[in-house]
Amino acid sequence: MTYEVKDIKLAPRGKLMIDWAERHMPVLAEIRRELSKKKPLKGMKVGAALHTEAKTAVLVRTFAAAGAKVAITSCNPLSTRDEVAAALAKEGVEVYAWRGETSREYYANLNHVLDIKPHVLVDDGADLISLVHSKRTELLKRVQGASEETTTGVNRLRMMAADGALKFPVMAVNDSPAKRFFDNRFGTAESAFQAIMGITNTLIAGKNIVVVGYGFVGRGIASRAKGLGAIVTVVETDPIKALEASMDGFRVTGMAKASRLGDIFVTTTGNLKVIREEHMRAMKDGAILCNAGHFNVEIDIPALRKLAVKRCEVLEDVEEFQLKDGRRLYLLAEGRLVNLAGKRSLGHPMEIMDMSFALQALSVEYIAKHGGELEPKVYEVPAEIDRKVAELKLKSVGVELEKPTKEQLEYLRSWRAGT
Ligand code: ADE
User: Fold this and answer.
1) Which of 26, 16, 2 has the alpha carbon at shortest distance from 87?
2) CA 346 – ligand 1 centroid, Å
3) pLDDT score at 417
4) Pairing, β 288-291 against β 69-73
5) pLDDT (tens digit, 9 = 90+) per residue, 318-344?
6) Closest residue CA from atom 1 of ligand 1
């Protein structure tokens, strides 16, 4: 079997981790039961660049049960759980992933996944799709389509489509309501605090937390921070979102002022250098900086390194930067997405990834069925798929849905005055 993992002997432990996740992902389990009967991916190859951790492995098992041969690497050099990678390799999946890949290894692993000549790609951040369009163009004829997990990836793909560069259809799983209302908002909020607290052991209550960005992720983090007793400040460039944050009860201000207030800074913008040198110069001694966006570009880490007269790792995933005047700033998980990149970070809760990966499984089935007929564009996940995932989730948590009466349905469909 072909794989490159840290240590294949970790497989038994990884299997237990995957089995645990699987028991908490009932929606995906139901979809797997359906797909394993239909085998819609029979004879197909799926190439994935996803955070190679336990919940992702449950999705990989689902693709395999649907008949596909799967190759996977991680979409972040720090987010692989080595036990899980080993277990997947033992289960016959081509795995090229380990925690702590160098940049060269990261790209080599993406290329290894593409070497299987996949028909469908499953991406998180769009690095795999971008690689096919830049350096592996020989595969463009082969790939029927792809699905993309995250906001950053979907934004990149929309830019590619606008430039006329996108050569196959991509399902924007990120944009479907059953994903972003839950995964981006509740999932990131819980996983970010699980990680921040797990890595630092710091108290959140009473702390000044600065949330940079008030999209779905920022909203979730700000709301959880408030729930944990923090005093929350939001920094936002979009007037509607800034207003929303203000009416949600948060202090909203510019980064210059926020820099002086924060004990903990969390970036969630998807944009680069939202925390820059001038902000770091203004921060309090002991401020903690971390990122919950996809790429490690939001905090200007080169500037932080330049400012520091001394640097050292004070705890696992906590780097101390001592400034000239003696103040110390702390960077978590190298400024990579803190909820997955920290050694003790677990990613989103299982029940959340249950929905996101159910959408992925059904989107890949959709591409396998319709990819050949679709224009090379970014597509919304069909509303029926979204609804199916939400209904299965409701069922799994025992929440009842009210049914509209016939009369109500007719009323909603009518447009004549007085009806
Ligand atoms: N686990 C696997 N993929 C993830 C993602 N995109 N976000 C959080 N946790 C995950």
Assistant:
1) 16
2) 9
3) 77
4) unpaired
5) 999 999 999 999 999 999 999 999 999
6) 347
For 260-286, write each residue's pLDDT tens digit. 999 999 999 999 999 999 999 999 999
pLDDT, tens digit, 9 for 90 and up, residues 78-116 = 999 999 999 999 999 999 999 999 999 999 999 999 999
CB contact at 8 A, 52 and 81: yes
**With 90 as the cut, is the pLDDT of residue 416 above it?**
no
Residues with C-beta less than 6 Å from any ligand 1 atom: 50-51, 53, 55-56, 124, 149-150, 191, 339-340, 347-348, 353
Ligand 1 centroid distance, CA of 251 (Å):
29
User: What's the pLDDT score for residue 1?
Assistant: 59
Residue with CA at minimum distance from ligand 1 atom 3? 51
CA distance 395 to 275: 43
Cα of 148 vs centre of ligand 1, distance in Å, is 12
Domains of the chain plus CATH, in order, are 8-179+349-396 (3.40.50.1480), 185-341 (3.40.50.720)
Mutate to test the pocket of ligand 1, among 18, 22, 25, 50 (most ligand atoms within 8 A of CB): 50
Using alpha carbons, list the distances in angstroms from residue 1 to 86, 89, 91, 97: 12, 8, 10, 15
**Atom of ligand 1 at shortest distance to CA of 150?**
6
The pTM of this model reads 0.95
